[in-house]
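Narrative summary of target 7.
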Amino acid sequence: MKFPFYLSDGKKRSDVPATLPVSRRSQIMQPENYIADPGLVDACNIALLLGQPLLLTGEPGTGKTQFAYSVAWQLGFEIPLKFETKSTSTARDLFYTYDTLRQFQDVQNGIKDRSSLNYLTYHALGKAILLTKEKSDIAELLPPNFEHPGKRRSIVLIDEVDKAPRDFSNDILNELEHLYFRVPELGNDAIRVNPELQPIIIITSNSEKDLPDAFLRRCIYYNVPFPEKERLREIVTNRLGLNSHSNNDFLTTALDLFYKLRHSSSGLRKKPTTAELLGWMIALREISPNHPENPLKNPDLALSTLSNLIKRAEDQEKAQIIVKTWISNPKK
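Modeled conformation, tokenized:
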């Protein structure tokens, strides 16, 4: 199967730079198109009522991260202040970092203006706490480049917390519960939240490692399940603008093959996710102008686009066998 555009099998250089399309994936990321299951909505409402962090687990691709953006959109807030957890993250990183190396270099270079604020950068939860106060009340804590649009409530997304060392979760217990932090470089006074504008905290985990019990006690917990076929049909319909009638042949066919690849009998080590399904369906529509209503009427497209669904080398051969079997007998 040859795609009708972009690269060809030859090595001929184009006379002018190629014009590539604007990414269509942006349409599937719009927060207004997110559909949360009832259990997730209930858990979030309890977290909002009690003022506790909402901890979301579930396999990758179930929409845990995007839910934070959906909450912000529904409540009329700015987009979440996101903390991307890394294997090197420390508790302090959630609130701020201090550039001691640049400060040392400035000393060596004889820079006269070495105010501690020049080396300070606030991060997600630290910034959210500061934004609950008037700028005039915290002026002595703000670096020159800190943007303060006026006091407000923020949503903080702590993404993939299970990537961090175990000490990370233990080290932020009190700060997470009481919403304060200290910047020793500015003195040892605690910077505390304005309780009337307490940030909404959403934490995600892929359950790659267990979280401490003390951390779990401070959170409202919900495990986001992978959607059943009918609910996934609704999600795809909403995200891609497809009609959801039973006679939508493309949607029905794509979901059928997708769930065959996800089935426990497939033997795949990494099963395709919702996000990958959406990207796959966008690609299928774009590269099959001859079958706009159902690109999978040309079933070879399923094989030629597997790179969008299958992301491990050891799964490629298994997936190809599944797809070829499906092509020869799609109703089985």
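The two ends are 24 Å apart (CA to CA).
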